[in-house]
Amino acid sequence: MSVQTPSTLQKLALQALLRDEALAMSSLVEVPFLLFPALFKEAFAGRVKKLIKAMVATWTFPCLPVGALMKSPNLETLQAVLDGIDMRLTRESHPRCLMIPLESLSITHYQISQSDLDSFSCCQSLFQLKHLEMKGVVLQVLDVRPLRGFLEKVVKTLETLNLQGCRMKDSQLNVLLPSLIQCSQLTKINFYSNDFFMPILKNLLQHTAIWSKMNVEQYPAPLECYDECAQVSVERFAQLCQDLMDTLRAIRQPKSLSFATRECHKCGECCVYGKRARLCFCWR
Ligand SMILES: [Zn+2]
Q1: Region of residue 193 (phi > 0: left; psi between -120 and 50: alpha; otherwise: beta)
Q2: What is the CA(270)–ligand 1 centre distance, in A?
Q3: 3-state SS assignment for residue 259
């Protein structure tokens, strides 16, 4: 008889449970609190959609780490998560219900579709969200109006917003701007690796007086910093970033403010302009 380690036994028990989806769903209430995330991980890996939906609907942790689990993007799995979030809404509308709205949502490096973005923005149980991370979720060709609508709902709760690597253009930031600048609770924002020109960045910074709680803010260096071969012009980079810094300092005192270029084609590093400027390896 072989001896199994407890973690292997736990994994085998979870996998056995997953083989019978109906049984797994009926015994959800009996799953020990601490095993819940492990079961969710297995359900996600096995793409057991009904169970994923049921688990999201009864999720009691403040964070739902969907992005970290989505190693190979799958629309049906994401849809199951969104359906689960919607189910929560129905339950929350009943009294003496103990469900809590989600505080944190992280979707990273996922090719989101327009319909994904539309449904995500309509989930009322996300309307008290404090932390939204969409790092590496490419929004370049999407209509971001649903995201603006969503931001409007969380202006009083949202504390951190990570839109790094979303590859948004000026027109998209312009769409988000009206609700973004009303998010009065923001303490941390990351816009690195988006494609904005100087005027829109300046316009954004000039309208952020309300961000008095801001601790860390990270913006992309304006596109004017690159020459026609997409190489950083160091002089322009320093001059334009300083200009943006002065713009912001004229309306409030930033605690930690930095601007970063895209990753250099040659060395893979970024040039960062902040309290301490740092150039990519090619310039050192
Ligand atoms: Zn370099």
Answers
A1: left
A2: 7
A3: strand
Q: Which helix (H) or strand (E) holds 258?
A: strand 256-260
Q: Buried b vs exposed e over 152-187: b needs ≥16 C-beta within 10 Å?
A: ebbbebbbbbbbbbbbbbbebbbbbbebbbbbebbb
**142 CA distance to ligand 1 middle (Å):** 31
8-56 pLDDT, tens per residue?
777 787 888 888 888 888 878 777 777 888 888 888 888 888 888 888 8
Helix (H) or strand (E) holding 133: strand 131-133
**Element spanning 115, H or E:** helix 114-120
* Domain assignments of the chain as residue spans, ordered by start: 9-95
136-158 confidence digits (pLDDT tens): 999 999 999 999 999 999 999 99
How far is 233 from 279, CA to CA, in rounded Å?
Answer: 11
Å from CA of 261 to ligand 1 middle? 11
pTM of the model: 0.73
Q: Distance from the CA of 273 to the center of ligand 1, in angstroms? A: 15
| Ligand 1 centroid from CA 263, angstroms | 8
233 alpha carbon to ligand 1 midpoint, in Å? 12
